[in-house]
Specification:
This protein has 395 residues and is α/β, with parallel strands linked by helices. The chain is built from 14 helices and ten strands. Helix content is 46%, strand content 10%. It binds adenosine-5'-triphosphate (ATP) and magnesium ion.
Length: 395
């Protein structure tokens, strides 16, 4: 057989498969989210709204009766339901008379530096994207101004936020545009608003692979400069606009992850507590340390405010997992976050329809399942928020 011919056929087949898949995904998305109805956030019950705000529901009711703040929508049963915008308006209102500054708007104050959290591990499927998405959304719902960056060419975080990487980003608009070596675009031009008031997104897509290819070339030509500061430098352009940046890293320790590591003020390493994952983690840690040494030798400041391990997809009833968790806690002590992220079908099911657990309706799940999952997510995210507050000198 003519080898050139097979090559050509394979090409054609792959191309055709790619096109069919993109079309199918688009069709699927149109069924799930009709084209002109952009993704929106669900409404929150008054109970959920008061829990998010940290006030009593009776107080929210009083505000409503007194005509203060936003007017929540009323259900046919006369229950108040709040939009995310309502909740943000309430934050602004409540903060004016807060007993303690920052009770309702907990973000940066004069002198506080932007928090940049890199979520990483080169183990695929360790829960990086799920962690990043829920952390970014929870912080935004809690009143922080958040920028989520999808640094993974697989672009799952992007898709989760209703932007289809293979359809919506054909003319650019990813983080790659802002960090490439050849005439980088301004950060503002790649940032998009999401359906959550305080949450912005910089999408990713396959084009990010270019950064992995271009960096060695630029290094060889001596014009990569401090390549590992591409993200850090780009973020400086929008420093004032955010309190927290969450970066979802790809499952490899390439130049993209190194740039995230160099930009980060806090590092979150996700670990699925299974033996194979933990064994590969040892390698990941050693390589990371080696790389950080190399970067530090060039004079760069590689200090971080904190780094923590987050146990993901944890199953409390699984004995081997428990042994691994105990082992990790003994070795790494308080570097392991107290709360593990529980494995839950609510989280994976929500993921199937490109949603986070914060976006789906509680009524779509068995109550106990939903409640257990959301409680674990909130505890994880609030523990991270505490680390952020600590770096700003508050607790
Ligand atoms: N707590 C959880 N409970 C149940 N399923 C989960 C949980 N966390 C993640 N998953 C599922 O596990 C899969 C992998 O998770 P995720 O995509 O977050 O990992 P990742 O580390 O980002 O993967 P990759 O390395 O490919 O980027 C997804 O299908 C996700 O829905
Ligand atoms: Mg991922």
């Amino acid at each position: 057989m003519d080898p050139a011919k097979t090559h050509e056929d394979l090409n054609a087949v792959i191309r055709q498969h790619s096109e069919t898949l993109a079309a199918q995904l688009q069709a699927q998305r149109e069924t799930l989210f009709p084209p002109d109805s952009a993704k929106t956030m669900r409404k929150f019950t008054s109970g959920e709204a008061s829990a998010l705000l940290g006030v009593n529901d009776s107080y929210l009711r009083k505000l409503h009766l007194d005509g203060k703040g936003p007017s929540p929508e009323l259900t046919p049963g006369n229950r108040r339901i709040y939009s995310v915008e309502d909740i943000q308006d309430l934050r602004v209102l409540l903060e004016k008379t807060a007993r303690k500054k920052g009770d309702y708007l907990p973000g940066r104050r004069e002198g506080d530096k932007l928090q940049i959290i890199g979520v990483m591990n080169f183990k695929g499927g360790s829960g990086k994207t799920t962690t990043s998405a829920h952390l970014a959304q929870r912080l935004a719902l809690k009143g922080y101004r958040v920028l989520a960056i999808d640094l993974d060419p697989q672009a799952s975080l992007t898709a989760l936020h209703g932007v289809q990487p293979e359809m919506d980003l054909n003319d650019g608009g990813t983080i790659y545009d802002a960090i490439r070596y050849d005439s980088p675009a301004p950060m503002q031009s790649v940032i998009r608003k999401t359906y959550i008031p305080n949450l912005d997104l910089i999408p990713g897509n396959l084009e990010l692979m270019e950064f992995e290819h271009e960096t060695p070339r630029a290094l060889a030509q001596g014009n990569a400069g401090l390549f590992f500061f591409r993200i850090k430098d780009a973020l400086q352009q929008v420093d004032e606009d955010y309190d927290v940046v969450v970066i979802d890293c790809p499952p490899q320790l390439g130049f993209l992850t190194m740039s995230a590591l160099s930009a980060a003020t806090g590092v979150l390493v996700t670990i699925h507590p299974e033996m194979l994952d933990v064994m590969s983690m040892s390698q990941f840690l050693r390589m990371t340390a080696d790389l950080m040494d190399v970067i530090a030798q060039s004079g760069a400041d590689m200090s971080h405010d904190w780094m923590r391990y987050l146990l993901t997809r944890f199953e409390p009833s699984d004995a081997p997992q428990n042994r691994i968790v105990a082992f990790l806690r003994t070795m790494y002590g308080d570097k392991v976050l107290n709360t593990p992220m529980l494995k839950s079908t609510a989280i994976s099911d929500a993921g199937l329809t490109k949603q986070t657990l914060y976006e789906v309706e509680r009524s779509a799940f068995t109550r106990a399942t939903y409640d257990r999952a959301i409680e674990s997510l909130n505890m994880v995210n609030d523990e991270i928020a505490e680390l952020i507050q600590k770096t700003w000198g508050r607790t």
